[in-house]
Amino acid sequence: MTQAPQVYGTEHDASATGPQPGHAYRELVGGPLDGQLIEVTGWTEDEITTGAQLITPHSAYGPDGRASYGPTFSRPDGPWVWEGDVP
Q: Which residues sit opposite 66 in a β-bridge?
């Protein structure tokens, strides 16, 4: 049985960590959050095309660091790729 990808911001042991119907997501590719999904439901087009700096305990800057993810020009509606860690 294949497990649904974890949604960023949910606890790994929560009962509903997978994608929910009617919500929009982007897959995170590479870096410390590889394979997770970020929910973008309700985000503006500008916010989606900008990407996000997401808090992660696995950053190069420790548990308060962030990982920067954003869309690629070739696939703006596709997955977000890791751009690096930021303090």
A: 55, 86
**pTM (2 d.p.):** 0.84
Beta partners for 27?
A: 37
**What are the extents of the domains in the chain?**
25-86
- Tracing tokens 């994608």 back to the chain, one arrives at 19
Which of these, 33, 28, 85, lies nearest to 59 by C-alpha position?
85
Whole-angstrom Cα distance, residue 85 to residue 87?
7
Per-residue pLDDT 10s for the chain (87 aa) are 556 788 887 765 555 567 889 999 999 999 999 999 999 999 999 999 999 999 998 888 888 899 999 999 888 789 999 999 998
